[in-house]
Each structure stands twice: as structure tokens, then as C-alpha cells.
Amino acid sequence: MSEANPFESLQEQIDDAASYVDAGEDVLNRLKHPERVLETNLSVEMDDGSVEVIKAFRSQFNGDRGPYKGGIRYHPGVTRDEVKALSGWMAYKCAVVDIPYGGGKGGIVIDPADFSESELERLTRSFATELRPFIGEDRDIPAPDVNTGRREMNWIKDTYETLENTTEPGVITGKSPSSGGSEGRVEATGRSTMLTAREAFDYLDKDLAGADVAVQGYGNAGWITAKLLHELGANVVAVSDSSGAIYREVGFNPVDVKNHKNETGSVVGYPEAEDEFSNEDLLTLDVDLLVPAALENAIDGDLAQDVSADVIAEAANGPLTPEADDVLAESDTYVFPDILANAGGVTVSYFEWVQNRQRFYWTEERVNEELERVITDAFDNLVETYEETGASNMRTAAYAVAIERVVDAYEEGGNWP
Ligand code: GLU
Description:
Layout: H1 6-18, H2 25-30, E1 36-45, E2 51-62, E3 68-74, H3 80-96, E4 103-108, H4 117-131, E5 140-144, H5 150-164, H6 188-203, E6 212-216, H7 220-231, E7 235-241, E8 244-247, H8 254-264, E9 275-277, H9 279-283, E10 289-292, H10 301-304, E11 311-313, H11 322-329, E12 334-336, H12 338-341, H13 344-358, H14 364-389, H15 394-413
């Protein structure tokens, strides 16, 4: 795994797309930096009565197209630069799928496994209290990310509403349905990765039914992608989590593997596996489709030399370094970037926010239909731009689409002193 700084990677990705966008260097420079970053030290009481000081961030990258939007992750590897990068990726992701949001991201520097549920609740409510002046359904709308989910979103909503003495479920998305969450939100990220892979195979005249698939990471995004691809007839031959990878030539039943992980804590040790190896070995398997669904920098320039997949659909944010992109652009591997392939999460967050504001709730069927329309439209737009511009890869074409939309909104609004 590479040590590449994700914020520098983001800036490089913008530079790569610059020549395809009709905007001056000054405007593009503006799009390479967050508007503001909150860094806060939370004092949290532990169960034994001691107080721990815990660092947390929220980056508001760009608000030209709408309220800042993006998740909050709990991970020991969270840094200021990582959060800045992730907030930028959110701004461009929302623009690629054309939903009316800017980009934001937050993170708390902890390993949640070291905390009890009540400690996590106090920590989350403390962060929500710090965030209160900066968030709101028209201002900045957090959501789940790595190691956070419905439970944390419900706490943040409750803290905000209590402090504001109001009901405003649209202040945060990814809640439980009883707290105003949307049907289909939990599956949405994996669903967009499946839809992107399906459209990609169709575009490349390849068959997804019978295709061999490897999925790195078996959290929410990875396992749902595996499940939905399996339903389309693909063979999920390898999956992994932070403990390692498992392989089976005829493919796994992703639901059974998930049950095993729920029971034992890992996919490793699943009885039907024929082989076990490292995450790096999984990433270089000779498969039709590779889905990196873990963290940033999974594939760097060196590892990319050994990647043999025909197609990569990125369920994680930032899993390939710019050097890996350069290597793969010279090979026969097509990379369908994160800002499209995992955009289902924020798209269904948008649907949740719309439902919250209207206080009118949709069926899961409607959510999935609308999501399919958004992702397939964005896919068509992306390949059209890729072909028209002759960009060296799909990521650069996606950034060209996204940057153009952000620049349009900025220029139409004008620069107000
Ligand atoms: N954390 C997800 C992402 O990286 C979802 C963000 C959201 O729903 O706002 O896209």
C-alpha cells in the first residue's frame, strides 16, 4: 500500500483534467483547495471516568453547486489532508451525477473497536455539538462513511435537533427509517458500483454473467457489490477484508461469506475457500472485474504493474494513486472511477434529503429506479466525454465533466468580494 498523500492525488487529478475544461488557471486553482477546514479536539468522558482528547475534522471543500455534502469516518488513519481530499472527491462526485450539492467530509481519529457503545455515543454527540454551527439542511449535510452508519447518524440528528429545538431530519442522511432514513440507502453505494460495472461491461462488449470478480474489502460497499454482481450471474471468486483474502475458483455465495464474517469477525476462515492469500495478491488476480472497496492508495504505481484485471470499478474513495492510473492507462485495463462508481451512496442521500424536506417517503422500488436512472445517465455522459476529448482514462474524463459543472455554477454566481 502506498503512502501517497490523498490531497496531492486530488490536486493531480484536477490538473490532469484541466486541459479539457474551459476555465482559467485562477479558477482551477480555486477548485484545488477546500474553502475551510474545522479541526477540533473533543474532550470525551470514558466509562472509567477519565477524559480523552480526541481529534476530529470537517472539511467544507466547495459550495458552488449547493450545500456541502459528505460522510464522517471513524478511523485511526484519519488526517487533515485525507479529510480535505475526501471532501474534494465529494464535490466532484456530486457534480458527476449532477445532484445539487457541494462537497464536504469529516473524520474522527479513532479506532472505534477500542470504544464502548456509550463512549462512542458521547464522542459522536460531542462532535455533533462542535459541528452544530456549521451544519444544517441548507448548509452542510453529513452522512455515513468508513466505520459509521445509521446509529451514529441517528445520534447526530438527535443532538442537532435537541440543541436547535426543532425537527430537521435533512441535517444528516443515512439515518434509520424510523428516524427519517431512506429505504435503499444502506445498499446504495454497492448498487452504484454494480450498475457502473454492468454498464461498463455492456460498453466494452463483455459479458458480466460468468465473469470472474475479485472484491477487496467486505464492508458495506464491498459486500453489497459482491451480492448484486452475484445476482447478475458473475462469479465472485475472491473477497477480502483487513485480515486477508479468500479464493474459490467457481465463486462464492456472497451472503454466506457475509454471515461467516458476522459470526467470526472476518471472511478469512470461510470453510468453502480453496485458498487464502494477502490483499495484494487479490488485487493482482487475473479476473474480468476488480472492485477495490476498502481505503485510499490500495493500488500504487508498483502494484499497478502487476494488475491483470480487465476492468476496475472503484467502490472505495481514492483506491488508485495517480501513478497507478498512469500505469493502467498504458495497459488494457479500464478504470471506472470512484466519483461515478460509488456515487450511489450520496445519490440516495440526496433522495433521503428530498424525502425529509417533503416529509413524504418513497418505496425502495422507487429509490432503486431513480438511482439507476442517475447512474446510467452519468455513465453515458462520461463515456461520451471520454470519446469526445480523447482523455487518457475515464477518471480524467469524469473530472472534466465535474469541473465544468462546478466552474459554470461559480462563474454564473460571480465572485463576490
Ligand atoms: N460516504 C459516502 C461517500 O463517500 C456517502 C456520502 C453521503 O451520502 O453524503 O460517497
